[in-house]
Hints:
The complex is a heterotrimer.
Chain A: H1 2-6, H2 11-38, E1 40-43, E2 47-50, H3 55-96, H4 101-109, H5 116-127, H6 132-139, H7 153-177, H8 181-191, H9 194-205, H10 207-223, H11 226-231, H12 239-248, H13 253-278, H14 280-284
Antiparallel strand pairs in A: 1-2
Chain B: H1 2-41, H2 60-63, H3 71-102, H4 108-119, H5 123-136, H6 143-167, H7 171-179, H8 184-213, H9 216-221, H10 228-236, H11 242-271
Chain C: H1 2-18, H2 25-30, E1 48-54, E2 60-61, H3 68-77, E3 80-87, H4 90-102, E4 112-115, H5 120-126, E5 130-131, E6 160-173, H6 183-188, E7 196-199, H7 202-212, H8 222-237, E8 241-245, H9 250-255, E9 260-264, H10 265-271, E10 278-281, E11 287-297, H11 302-312, H12 315-323, E12 330-331, H13 342-349, H14 351-354, H15 363-366, E13 369-370, H16 374-377, H17 380-390
Parallel strand pairs in C: 1-3, 7-8, 7-9, 11-13
Antiparallel strand pairs in C: 2-12, 4-11, 5-11, 6-9, 6-10, 6-11
Helix pairs in contact in C: 12-13
Amino acid sequence: MGFLHRHRGLTPYLLLAPGVVWLGLFFLVPLGFLAYQSLESGSIDFGYAFSWSWGNYWNAIRNYRGHFERSLEYAGIATVLALVVSYPVAYWIAFRGGRWKNLLLLFIVAPFFVTYLIRTLAWQTILADHGLVVRTLHHLHVLGSTGRLLNTATAVVAGITYNFLPFMALPLYVSLEQIDGRLIEAAEDLYASRWKAFLRVTLPLSLPGVVAGTLLTFIPAAGDFINAQLLGSPTNHMIGNVIQSKFLELTDYPAAASMSFVLMAAIIVAVLAYARAVGTEQLTG
Amino acid sequence: MSGVMDLGGRAWALARRNVLAAYSVLFFAYLLLPIAIVIAFSFNNPTGRFNYVWQGFTWNNWRYWDGVPGLRGAIELSLEIAVIASLVATALGTLVALALVRYGFRGRGATNLLIFLPLSTPEIVLGASLLTLFLNANVAFGFWTILIAHIMFCISFAVVTVKARLVGFDRHLEEAAMDLGANEWATFQKVTLPLIAPAILAALLLCFAISIDDFVVTYFNSGTRITFPLFVWGSARIGAPPQINVIGTAIFVVAVGLMVTNVLVQNRRGKRGLV
Amino acid sequence: MRDLEFTRRQLLERAALGGAALTLPGFLAACGGSSKKAASSSHKLAKTLRFSNWTLYMDTNNKTHMHPTLESFSKKYGVHVQYTEDINDNASFFGKIQGPLSRGQSIDRDIIVMTDNSRYPSLLIKKGWVEKLDKSALPNIKNLQPALSHPAWDPHRDYTLPWQSGMTGIAFNDKLTDPVLSIDELFGNRKLKGKVTCLNEMADALSLVMVSNGDDPSKVTNASFNRAITKIKKAVDSGQIRQFTGNDYAAPLAKGDLAAAMSWSGDIAQLLSENSHLHWNLPADGGDIWTDNMLIPKGGNAYTASVYMNYVYDPKIAAQIEGGDPKTGDTGVYYICPVVGAREALLKTNAAIAKNTLIFPTKKMLDNVHVIDPNALNNEKYLTTWQNLISA
C-alpha cells in the first residue's frame, strides 16, 4: 500500500486496468478484426485476403435489405408493445406496490431465470396449432379456421416482446419510482383531472425510463435470431438469422462481418432518429 | 354537492386502482405462463419421444435428471463457466466501479463509454467479433474461448450494479475510519467492503445468471464444446426431453429462491432501520 | 430375395458413385498435395471414444435413453464412449469444425458423420483434415456392402466408412390430408398451405424438386437449378412451405401440426411408433438416396475409432443398431444398413423390421431413386443461392 500512497494519482488507473484491458482486448480489438474481415474477399476453399472490398457492404445492403428492414420493423413493434404492456404495471408497482415492491419486481425479473431458449420453446408449445390459444382464437373467429400462430410474424414479434419485457419494465419502474408523489398531488390539484395530471407531469417525468427501456429492448431485439428461428417461418427471418448462417454454415466471413456492421449502423441510425424525436437531453441525461 | 363529487371521485379512484391492479395480475399471469408450462412439463410422462402433450404425472424426470446422454456434461460445463466468469467479472467490475465513483481522472468519460458499449451492442455482433478474433489469432475454440467471452460481457453488468450502490454511499464513514488512523487498505476492508457487499453479491448473482443463460455468444465461440443452452438448442430440433425442463426449473427455483431470500432479508432489515 | 439384394446393391453403387465427381480440379489446385500423415500407429485403446453423430441415429432404450450398443462396446473394450448428438446439418457442423481443423487443431472428436450428398466428406479428405482408418483393426470391413466399397472420392475406403444410407421422400399424415405423393402436390395443394416443410439440405430438396420438373438431378444445369429454386421460392413466398428443417420436422409431424413433410425414410420409420397415421413414400416422380459416412477428424484416435467401426460392422451389432430390440424396449435407427448380413440377423430376431420396406427397400423403390450431380454440390453460386433461399 505504501506504493499507492506515494502515487495516489495512479490508483484509479490500477483499479481500472484489469477490467479495461479485458474489454479492450476482447471487445474493442475483436470489433477491429471484424472490420478488417468485412473488407476481405475470397472463399472458404481458397482462403480470404484483405482487399478493401467495400463491395461486401454494398452487397449486404442490396441483397438483404428486406432482412434489415424486417429486423428493425419487428424490433420496433416489439419495443412499442413492451412499452405499452409494461408501463401500467411499472406504474402500479411504483405507486401502489408498498412494501411488496421488491417482491413484485422479482416477478418481473423471474422469467429471466428460465433459460432463454427454454422460455421460447415454451411459447412454441403455447402457440402450437392444436394448442389452447389457437383453438380459443378459432372459437372467437379472430383467427380463420385454417389460421395459425406458430411460424408466423405474429409469433416472432410476440416472442421478442416477451423475451425482452424485463429490459423495458425495470427502467420504467426505476424512473417512475423516483417521482416525488407530492409533485403528482400538486399536479392533480392544478389540472383537476388525474388523466391530465398524468399526461402533463408523470409521463414526462418518466421519460428517462421510457428512453432507457426502449433502447435496452430495441437494440438486442434487432439483432435477435432465436425467436425468428424457433417461432417464425423462412419469410420471417431477420438479419440475425442471415449473419448467423453466413458465419457458421456458409463460413462466408467477409459477407457476415460486413452485415454485422450494417446492422450496427442501422441500429445507430434508428436510435439517432428516435433521439431526435424525444429530444437529445433525454438520451444523455 | 361537493360530497357527491368526492364520492364519485373516490369511486373513480377505487375503480381505477382496481383496474390497474387487475391489469397487473393479468400481466403477471402472462409473464409467468411460459414458466408454468416449463415446470409442468418437467413432470410430464411422455409415452414417445416428444414432450409436447400432457400425458401423465411422473417424478422420474427429476429422479433421473441426467438420464439424457450428454446433458450432465453440458450442465457441468455451464456451471464451471458461470462460476468462474461471474467471480472474475465481478472482481474486475468492482474495481472499475470503485475507480469510476471514487476518483476523478483523465479518461473517465472514455471508460464510462467503454463500459456502456458492450451493453448496447447486439449479442450477435459480440459473438461474431470474438469469433473473428479467435480465428485470426489461431486460438483453439473450447473452454477458454467461452470463458473469455462470458467474462467480457459480464464485466459491464458488474460495473453498473456495483456503481449504483457506490454512488449512494456515505463517504463520511470512510473518512471517519481514516481519521481514526486506519490506512486505505484497512478502511477498504473494514468499512467499504462490508457496505458494498450486497451490491457485489447482486453483481455475482446477475453475472452468474447471464452467463448460465447465454446462447448467442457461446454458440459462436464454443467450438465443439456444449453448454446447457447449446444442448437445449440441439435437442430442441428433435423434441427436447423433459429433463431439459427439469434443469430449467431447477435453475429458476434456485435463482428465484436466492432473490426472494435477499428481498425478505432486506425488508426485515429495513423494518429494523438497518439499511 | 436375391433379386432384391442385387438391386439394392445397384442402388448403393449409384449412391457411392454420386460422390464421384466431387474431385473438382479447382480443389486439387487449391489444396495441392496435402500430404496425409499416416495415422498414429499406436495400437493402444484410448480411455474415451469421442463420437459426434446426428440426432436419433443410434439404438436407444425408450425408458433410460441410453444406447445399448454403445454400452456393450464400453463393457467389451473398456472404452468410455462420449456420444454427442451435435450434428444437425452438414453445413453448420462443417462450419463449426473447419476453423480448428484448418489450423491443425484437434476438434476433440474421434468419429464424426457426414453425408455424401454434401460436399464435405470429399472436402475433408482433400484438405487432409481426416485420419486414415486403421484397417489392421478393421477386419469386419469385409462386411461392407460391395456397392458402397468404392466411392470415387475415397476409392479404397481409406478414410471413411458408411454409417447408414437413407432415402429422401415425402411423409404425410392421413388424418390431416389425402395422400401426398408428389412434390407438385406438396408445394401446390393449397389445402396444405402452411402445413408442409421442406428439407434444408440442398441435395435432398433439389433432387426431389428437379425430378418433379422433369429435369435430371444427376446432371444439374443452371437452367434446371434455377427452375427448381424458382419452384421452391414460389412455395415459400405463397406461405405453402412453413419452414426449412433438418430432423426437426419430426416433432410437429408426429404432433399433427404438419400435414406433410419432405423427409428421410428412417425418421418416419421411427416416428410410426409415435403416430401410426404417418406414411412415407418416394414421390411418384422419384426420390433421392444418400449415405452418411464415419470419418476420423485429424487428431482423433484412429485406432480406437477403427476398433469401434469394426464393432459396428459385426452383422449382429449392426442388426441391433438398425432394428433395436422390441423385447427390451430399444428403438433402432431404422435407416438403410450398409452391413452385409444384418438383414439375415434381423430376420431371426426382429422380422418385422427386416421386412419393413423403408429399412430394406423393394426393387421398385430402388429403381425410383436418384443421386444428385456432385458438381452442383461444389458450386459456390448454387450453395449461396440455396442458403439465401432457406434463410429467406
